[in-house]
Amino acid sequence: MRTSSNPAFKNLPKGGYANFNYGQPPGGSFGGGGQATAPKQAGRPLTIDDVVTKTATTLAITIGTAAATYFIAGPQAMALALPAAIVGFVLALVNIFKKKVSPALVIAYSAVEGVFLGGISFMFAAMVNPAIIVQAIAGTMGVFAAMLVVYKTGAIRVTPKLTKWIIGAAAGAFTLMLINLVAGFFVEGGIGIRDGGPLAIGFSLLCIGIAAFVFLLDFDAADQAIKSGVDAQYSWYIAFSLMVTLIWLYLEILRLLSYLQND
After folding, report:
1. pLDDT bracket for residue 6 (50, 70, 90)
2. Which InterPro entries does the annotation name (predicted)?
3. In angstroms, rounded to a whole number, what is the distance separating the alpha carbons of residues 254 and 263?
4. Per-residue buried b or exposed e for 69-100, using 16+ beta carbons within 10 Å of the residue's own CB
5. CA–CA separation, 67 vs 226, rounded Å?
6. DSSP letters along 62-109, please?
């Protein structure tokens, strides 16, 4: 079974979606492995409405707290960005490794990330111009909608080979970010992937492309979970996973726009 590069999907019950054989004869499985058994279903099976509702809820919370931070906190919003980023990172790790679904933790993550995005957005608006925020939001929603259409129409099929390529590309991108962060403590500008130059522009374009393809993996993982009858509570994990990708995409588009408008 294909897996998403987004770590949130690790919290789906172990053994692969082939084990989610609700309604199948005892001992059977969608994957054909006769040893697999379905986990007990605590509630009703997951539906597309669950995914849409939970994703919309988390997105609304993030946008709401981001807007409040941006417009109410004003210049102080920038001071909130770093602590919010740290808290958000910790909450993300807890959500990823916690075995039991916790809607409260997913909601908390969404709210804290909203504060972070509000602070970061205010900083970019002050450095460049306020219009860059609207442009970044429009770009993020545009990429998300485009990749959803690509997935639903089957224009790009999510194959095991494509999955491995995307996971490897995402891992490579984050490794370079980490190297650049560490190098920045010793050399001004690090390795140059965030200094606004041609290399930085190219790297942001690469990250935007990778994030776009990660959406395909997330859509496919969610689709397979729905088809396999995963418990409805896992819609919170799916919403969390999609939010992680959306936030990364927004930040990369925001960076790219700042590079281009500062030239």
Report:
1. low
2. BaxI_1-like (IPR010539)
3. 15
4. bbeebeeebbebbeebbebbeebbeebbeeee
5. 33
6. HHHHHHHIIIIIGGGHHHHHHHHHHHHHHHHHHHHH-SS--HHHHHHH
Average confidence score pLDDT of the chain: 84
Please provide the DSSP assignment of 99-151 as one string: SS--HHHHHHHHHHHHHHHHHHHHHHHHHS-THHHHHHHHHHHHHHHHHHHHH
Q: What is the reported pTM?
A: 0.82
195 burial (CB, 10 Å; 0-12 / 13-18 / 19+) is: middle
For 153, the token pair is 């129409």
Q: Are 119 and 112 in contact (CB under 8 A)?
A: no
Distance (Å, rounded) from C-alpha 245 to C-alpha 226?
Answer: 20
Domain extents for the chain?
A: 42-262
Tokens of 157: 């099929």
Encode pLDDT of 43-52 as tens digits.
789 999 999 9
**Largest distance between two CA atoms of the chain:** 64
Query: HSE (CB half, 13 Å, CA atoms) of 114?
Result: 21
Split at pLDDT 50, 70, 90, the class of 140 is: very high
Give the sign of the dihedral formed by CA 249, CA 115, CA 79, CA 133: positive
